[in-house]
Description:
2 domains; mainly alpha; 41% helix; 9% strand; 7 helices; three-stranded antiparallel β-sheet
Amino acid sequence: MPKKDKEPQKSKKDEEVEIKPSESEKSEEKGKEEEPKTKFTFKCTRCDKCCLERGPIPITFWDLELWARNGVIANFMPYLDIYQKPDGVMDLILKPLPPPPEEGEDTSKNEPFSITPIEDLLEIKCPLYNQNDKKCLVYENRPLSCRVYPLEFDGKNFSIVDVDCPGVGEKGMTKEELKEMRESAKTMYYELTRIRISLPILNQMISQKVMMDLMKQNLEVMSKMTDEDRAKLDEIFKKSSDKPPE
């Protein structure tokens, strides 16, 4: 029988050589592993910056339920509005009040039902903050967004939305307070997601209901009009349609 050829022995150059980190590299990696992570601490200093410059404050079902339980929801109604952001997301917000007209400003040409765009109010103070007394008028019922500021949770990680906040890094925060703030930030994320899913649906349903009610009212009014009143109304519509656009 023919002898099998022996497999050629691999030289050291052909063998796979395991590259191991040097002692200096090991010490560097060890140092990185042992380097302590920055611990989040926060104590509100009542600097009032977040109340003066935050602009629209997002509201959740959590807030609405709290206000309903405490019987104060009517206090918030004048400031609630729906804001469709540039990215298409729809938020329920506490809308800041537009600043009063400056001295000597001509307001006679303003339309009676004109509304200041929310984009012009992004750096205006919260409507429920008393700047003179440096006091939140609804502190016990303040929105969830205010309770977790400046901490934020995105579904995976926590982050600080305002690193310049004077309270960030302040000592004195207990483990229980940190745990509560982290849990509140998680709640804010899930509640904000929940209301952002619901708002477009509710908004469309309410808009349809309002339109149907208006049409029904118009039909009822038309049915009660005399022939003379209908003729006058037709004449008004005709003049309006014949008028050239400005």
